[in-house]
Amino acid sequence: MANVNNDRFARGGLALLLIDLMNDLDFPGGDQLLSQALPVAERILRLRQRATRAGIPVVYVNDNFGRWRDQFKEVIAHCQRPASRGRGLVERLLPRDEDYFVLKPRHSGFYATTLEVVLDHLGARTLILTGLTGDICVLFTANDAYMRGFQLWVPNDCVASVDPAENRHALAYMQRVLKVDTQPSSEASGLLPEAGSHDRG
Q1: CATH number (domain holding residue 133)
Q2: Residue 83 neighbours by CB distance under 10 Å
């Protein structure tokens, strides 16, 4: 099996980013977002499994929710509280030991974070962006990635926003302006193996 802990991986410089999925959803519209995020989470889980089989590293890019003293594991624990609206979402997609993580203070995964350094360390030049929300943090991260010369794929079935119409508008904008590939995760056979395919390594 491919070893995703390798500093450099020979899969065309790909990295899978999971944006703001460790989330308590404690904000106006959180209930609406949760109803859309749960089915999206199942597709992201399948995509993560395929990425792992292909030797592609997974990077969690997550808001710190203003919890400036917390590390990533403490943010996850906060989102797993029994009272957390997003608990079910979080527990579907908990990170594994081999995954990477970056905490961000604002909308973009690149703003005031180590993300660019991590991606350079991994040799990544093509990013697969998934997560929440399509019209805010995914969009801002895609914009900053585009300006840094990354190739981008944002599977249209692996992002969600509070308002589905705004999610569609954001995807259309990314496709038109940022040259983002928005084909659904099921159409990625050229990049990622399907379930049941043989491992490479």
Answers
A1: 3.40.50.850
A2: 7
Please state the pTM of the whole predicted model. 0.89
Tokens linked to 134: 């399509």
Question: What's the CA gap between 23 and 17, in Å, rounded?
Answer: 15
Residue 57 in any domain: the answer is yes
* C-alpha closest to that of 141 among 62, 74, 75, 69: 62
Burial of 131 (0-12, 13-18, 19+ CB in 10 A): buried
How many separate domains does the chain show?
1
**Does residue 12 have a pLDDT over 60?**
no
Q: How many CB atoms lie within 10 A of CB 169?
A: 15
pLDDT digits (tens, 9 = 90+) for 136-166: 999 999 999 999 999 999 999 999 999 999 9
Which tokens belong to 138?
A: 């995914």
DSSP 131: E
159: tokens are 């992002």
